[in-house]
Amino acid sequence: MKPSAGLRLKTFLLIFLMVIFGPLGDVLLSKGMKRIGALTSWAPTELLHFFGATFRSSLVWLGIGSLFSFFLAYILVLTWADYSYVQPASSVAYGVVALLGYLLLRETVTPTRWAGIVIICLGVFIVGHTSPKTTEL
Question: What does the alpha-carbon distance between residue 97 and residue 114 come to, in Å, rounded to a whole number?
């Protein structure tokens, strides 16, 4: 089945949004939770303090909003594109995760990790050159 140019464009657009909003949400949640600190005890007062701080964190709420945007793009693209296309094509997000982790969280990304990410992105390139829809449903 040959996809129309409009189908391909809207599929690429929503996958692009998934690739941006998913990793961004994860990084914002990570940064927000690192600012709050680890839960050190299961005492009720500590739990109350921990969850209070979590729900007052603007970074946590921005992360939740970003992940909600990711989820909306994901469910929309799955209404017309094959799952076997969407999931591998959206895996380029692994590169975005590593880049955001390096830039925003100051994490060390080893050359071995970068090599693995390049291999994943090459697979995404191959999948991206196939039709996003192969079924008539």
Answer: 11
Task: Kindly report, residue by residue over 85-104, the tens digit of the pLDDT.
Answer: 888 888 889 889 999 999 98
- Residue-wise pLDDT tens digits, 119-129: 988 888 888 77
Three-state helix/strand/coil letters over the chain: CCCCHHHHHHHHHHHHHHHHHHHHHHHHHHHHHHHHCCCCCCCHHHHHHHHHHHHHCHHHHHHHHHHHHHHHHHHHHCCCCCHHHHHHHHHHHHHHHHHHHHHHCCCCCCHHHHHHHHHHHHHHHHHHCCCCCCCCC
Domain ranges of the chain: 5-128
Q: What is the pTM of this model?
A: 0.81
